Amino acid sequence: MIDTAHRPGATVAARHPLVLFYGLALILSAGVLALLMLVDLAEEGFVLGTFGPGLAAVITVGVLHGRSQAWHFVKRSMRWRFGVGWWAIAILMPLVVTVLALVMASTTGGPSLGSELWSGVAAAIPLLLMLTLLNGIPEELGWRAFMLPVAQRDHSAFVASLIVGFWWGAWHTPMFFVDGTFQATLGDELGVGLGIGFWTLATMVFSIGFTWVFNGVGGGALAAAVLHGSTNTWISWGLMDATPAESFSMFAWFVGLWLLLAAVLLVMYGPRTLTRRGERVVTYLDPSTPARV
Predict the structure, then answer these.
(1) Which residue of 122, 141, 185, 289 is most buried, as measured by CB atoms within 10 A?
(2) Rounded CA gap, 73 and 64, in Å?
(3) Do the Cβ atoms of 199 and 169 come closer than 8 Å?
């Protein structure tokens, strides 16, 4: 066990690590966004706010366990040797869901899956790399590398997924007020209140699949980060020329298909751990220490 008793603030943080982490994530992300809005650069620079969860996780680990353990946390989270099968799942699963959502949406007023979309697949590869680096890794260091293992100490993988997914979705709330974001488009179509609610429901559904990947590779946040970047990439690809109404139709199908996928995963792997071997990834440092939210 790593001693935190003599570190300033560590005792309080150890009692409520998720409160400290999430508070920092909100302050860092919303603070950056507020500054950008003041100088009228929010639409161009909102991506800087995505670094909040990762920075919050590193700071929280540093407060709890010291600077060296914070560096260990980052290195362990970024393990990349987790098998070619998981790499394929992280990159291609969102593409398959996106294609199916486009097919379904074309019957309900959504965008169609035309040849011009297929011609843009190769161009989406650089975007995948960029979004993994700018969205996936900074966010997943927080949501999956830190928050999910702590939540799984006291809850099943399924319940922990819903907890993380709820707060993950709520964290996006400021994005509903930034022009040019998908969240703002969703808010325009549904109203801000319903838009936030639907988005948060969506992230709770997505979170089950993200937990399956994270636990399946033994607690590797990089796999979740690639899945995160891939999901954003293929959604952007699918909605390339879509109108706001078409975007909502396609996204609704996308969420519905993810919900079906989540149900299949829960049946196949079980809600306790979402792993074939029944192993629970409890924490990044010390699985013997209980934690309270």
Answers:
(1) 141
(2) 12
(3) yes
Burial of 156 (0-12, 13-18, 19+ CB in 10 A): middle
Work out the end-to-end distance of the chain between its first and last CA atoms, rounded to an integer number of angstroms: 19
Using one digit for the tens of pLDDT, what is the confidence trace for 148-166? 999 998 899 999 999 999 9
CB atoms within 10 A of CB 171: 23
Neighbours of 131 (CB within 10 A): 25
Q: Which pTM value belongs to this model?
A: 0.89
DSSP 146-176: IIHHHHHHHS-HHHHHHHHHHHHHHHTGGGG
* Contact present, 182 and 233 (Cβ < 8 Å): no
d(C-alpha 10, C-alpha 13), whole Å: 5
Between CA 271 and CA 164 the distance in angstroms is 15
Alpha-carbon distance of 78 to 132, in angstroms, equals 12
Helix segments in the chain, DSSP class H = 10-15, 17-38, 42-45, 52-65, 67-77, 84-105, 115-118, 121-131, 137-142, 148-154, 157-171, 182-190, 192-216, 221-238, 244-269
Q: Distance between CA 275 and CA 227 in Å, rounded?
A: 17
Max alpha carbon distance in the chain (Å)?
Answer: 62
156: which 2 tokens? Answer: 């099943």
Quick one: CA dihedral 144, 75, 290, 171, positive or negative? Answer: negative
Given a cut of 80, whether residue 32 has pLDDT beyond it is: yes
Pair 83, 217: CB distance under 8 Å: yes
